[in-house]
From TrEMBL:
Keyword DNA repair: no
Subcellular location as annotated: Nucleus
SMART domains: ZnF_C4
Cellular component terms per the entry's GO annotation: nucleus
Coiled-coil stretches: none
The family this protein is said to belong to: Belongs to the nuclear hormone receptor family. NR2 subfamily.
Identification of the protein by name: Hepatocyte nuclear factor 4-beta
Keyword Cell membrane recorded: no
Nuclear receptor domain mapped to chain residues: 16-91
Species lineage: Eukaryota, Metazoa, Cnidaria, Anthozoa, Hexacorallia
Keywords: DNA-binding, Metal-binding, Nucleus, Receptor, Transcription, Transcription regulation, Zinc, Zinc-finger
Chief place where the protein resides: nucleus
InterPro entries linked to this entry: HNF4-like_DBD (IPR049636), Nuclear_hormone_rcpt_NR2 (IPR050274), Znf_hrmn_rcpt (IPR001628), Znf_NHR/GATA (IPR013088)
Single GO molecular function: DNA-binding transcription factor activity
Organism for this UniProt entry: Acropora cervicornis
Length: 116
């Protein structure tokens, strides 16, 4: 139960910690959450193909290194709960960032009210 806590306290010893989804060794941050390659690939496949999974149980399956393949519904749900996001989704509602565009057109000049 404490593994999540340890993960946060564990610092910069070159260890990426544990996968937030299944507890396997994480290989880094993928889609916004520390995860192993298995869960990274699973999440990517799931969102790319818009898979809709169903849980055969009570939607509270244990997802760990050994059982992570038993319920894709619960695994994917755990991915989202761990903070994973579809590619590009976090930018969807953002306006174009001034400076990222070199076209000098007026839309970058509009929000002058921030300046003061
Ligand atoms: Zn994993
Ligand atoms: Zn399940």
């Amino acid at each position: 139960m404490l593994s999540g806590l340890r993960l946060i306290l564990k610092g910069d010893d070159g260890d990426n910690g544990a996968c937030l989804i299944c507890g396997d060794k994480a290989t880094g941050k993928h889609y916004g959450a520390s995860s192993c390659d298995g869960c990274k690939g699973f999440f990517r496949r799931s969102v790319r193909k818009n898979h809709v999974y169903a849980c055969r149980f009570q939607r509270n399956c244990v997802i760990n290194k050994d059982k992570r393949n038993q319920c894709r519904f619960c695994r994917l749900r755990k991915c989202f709960r761990a903070g994973m996001k579809k590619e590009g989704e976090q930018n969807k509602f953002l306006f174009p960032i001034a400076g990222s565009c070199t076209c000098h057109s007026s839309h970058h000049l509009a929000p002058q009210t921030w300046a003061s």
